[in-house]
């Protein structure tokens, strides 16, 4: 199997076809957590897993089919044979540890490098929360509890957060991402960054994030798992355009 | 010794700090340098913290030149770096490992739901508070508690990932301890109470118990009715 020529991709020994076939993913489009797991499966050369696209809008994430795998009624809901791993970061960590020597290494060997991967990965979950608190404000907060002051504060917090990431990516270049070579930190964080630009984040005001976004847009695992409806329509909403 | 090149900046009564301290104890890294800071005096926003953690948050941790912020990152780092020392915190079996990772990340939701009730006034300015919001948060916490009560009832062992103490317990136990500290009813949540009783005297947990819980006033029992 030859390398795609993309920096960091290695050729891998042939993977038993049944390995991926015993995996199934219930997912929803436009969900960064679902996207993380799909990127990981691609990176670990586990294409061929079974997957089913469900609709959040139709409430399918609360269907019996999901509840049987994930009593929280949340996506992604992932199974590998008898092993269930819900929670996107958990599924990513499980897959990287289980298939460490296959596909691309997503956690480096040296503890010092691991420290940065783990830290940025966890910080990525804070970024997710802060994005959600702005983008989904009306979904999360009932009308009678909404305050302009609260949304304003959430936007300021998000803006500060994005500036932190802009700083982390000062030296972003091909092959040099959140913790050096592409890693679990990027798996967790990239979907959020793509999400932010989808919702109108200004590339002019966040040039390093924009560079990170466009560099990794072409990575095979990311391209292969790009949210389908993002491809078919133009830019969606612009709730983040003034940040 | 490795511990002597480690420094932890921490605050008492912080679940995230407690997680890191339990992990350090479990990996036999007692003797690490540490500094207790006061959240009330805003010491978490002081320069000494910002120099290591630009977020101005605790725990903040350094091992030699390696900085590791974020409690889960500290725990994952310590287990990886000191795998063969102290207690093994990530099980070998794929099923237990998967369950451990899942419970760890569910633990973040558990902690958020707890915080949305006990820290409601800290997070939400007075002009934005609503009884309906706090009630909704309490209802959410009750649903969450039901889930964990179920996990502990149906599990294959006494710990969150099965038969062995793991990183899932390291990160979630502090949340459980906080629940009882704030008045959660043991009668209504017997499995959580059993789990709490099982672990509260574990050496790593006893050694890192929040100091101000050992003396000083009780908290307001915000959870006694849920």
TrEMBL record, chain A:
GO molecular function: glutathione binding; glutathione transferase activity
Pfam families noted in UniProt: GST_C_3, GST_N_2
Domain GST C-terminal: from-to ranges: 110-239
InterPro entries assigned: Glutathione-S-Trfase_C-like, Glutathione-S-Trfase_C_sf, Glutathione_S-Trfase, Glutathione_S-Trfase_N, GST_C, Thioredoxin-like_sf
GST N-terminal domain span: 21-103
Species whose genome carries this gene: Oryzias latipes (Japanese rice fish)
Name of the protein this chain belongs to: Glutathione S-transferase rho
Record Gene3D superfamilies: 1.20.1050.10, Glutaredoxin
Source taxon at top rank: Eukaryota
Gene Ontology BP term (one): glutathione metabolic process
Cellular component annotations (GO), alphabetically ordered: cytoplasm
From TrEMBL, chain B:
InterPro entries assigned to the protein according to its UniProt record, in alphabetical order: Glutathione-S-Trfase_C-like, Glutathione-S-Trfase_C_sf, Glutathione_S-Trfase, Glutathione_S-Trfase_N, GST_C, Thioredoxin-like_sf
Transmembrane spans: none
CDD domains named among the record's database cross-references: GST_C_family, GST_N_family
GO CC term, one of those recorded: cytoplasm
Pfam families: GST_C_3 (PF14497), GST_N_2 (PF13409)
GO term, biological process aspect, one: glutathione metabolic process
GO molecular function per UniProt: glutathione binding; glutathione transferase activity
Protein family (similarity comment): Belongs to the GST superfamily.
PANTHER family named among the record's database cross-references: GLUTATHIONE S-TRANSFERASE GSTA, GLUTATHIONE S-TRANSFERASE-RELATED
The protein, known as: Glutathione S-transferase rho
Source organism per UniProt: Oryzias latipes
Name of the gene encoding the protein in the UniProt record: LOC101168100
